[in-house]
Amino acid sequence: MARLNINGTVHEVDAPGDMPLLWAIRDLVGLTGTKFGCGLAQCGACTIHLDGEPVRSCQTFVEDADGAKITTIEGLNGHVTETVRAVWTEMDVPQCGYCQSGQILATVALLTENRNPTDEDIDASMSGNLCRCATYHRIRAGIHEAAKRLEA
Ligand code: FES
Ligand code: FES
Fold it and tell me: Which of 55, 67, 108, 133 is the residue whose CA sits 20 to 30 A from 94?
């Protein structure tokens, strides 16, 4: 058995230490907002926060989360998150939406660290989050708009 602290709730799951967190979160706990894309830490669809840091849950394992706080899209909250959610909705950032949990987790991590990111900062933080609908220009515009509102 493993104990996973997800979004403030401890879940006891029957999972080996080498199970990808993505499977434990989706299949054992039933939180399906975190998506499977590549399984190889190359697309960002499975992004979660581990103690506030964005990680790829397809290549982060149950044993890595021992004693850590896991946050998924379902539990992400606070001022930065609410600002990003509002901007994402108002600016119609998503298209199909599949990548957007990961995009939002990565964006919130970026704006928590850096309230006024340049295009270069955005590229550095977001380049690992792929979007097959190519919403990159809207994501970039959304990040700048959210940053502006957070600075106001
Ligand atoms: S599914 Fe984890 S990075 Fe693609
Ligand atoms: S919005 Fe469709 S994959 Fe990004």
Answer: 55
14, 70, 120, 145 from 51: Cα distances, Å = 22, 6, 25, 26
Task: Tell me which residue range forms the domain holding 125.
Answer: 79-151
Which ligand minimizes its atom distance to the CA of 23?
Answer: 1
Ligand 1 contact via 128 beta carbon (within 6 Å): no
Q: Are residues 128 and 90 in the same domain?
A: yes
The residues with which 61 forms a beta bridge, in sequence order, are: 20
Annotate 23-54 with DSSP letters as a single string. Answer: HIIIIIS--TTSPPS-SSSSS-TTEEEETTEE
86 shares a domain with 67: no
**C-beta of 44 in contact with ligand 1 (< 6 A):** yes
User: What pTM was computed for the model?
Assistant: 0.97
pLDDT in tens, 141-152: 999 999 999 998
Query: Length of the chain, please?
Result: 152
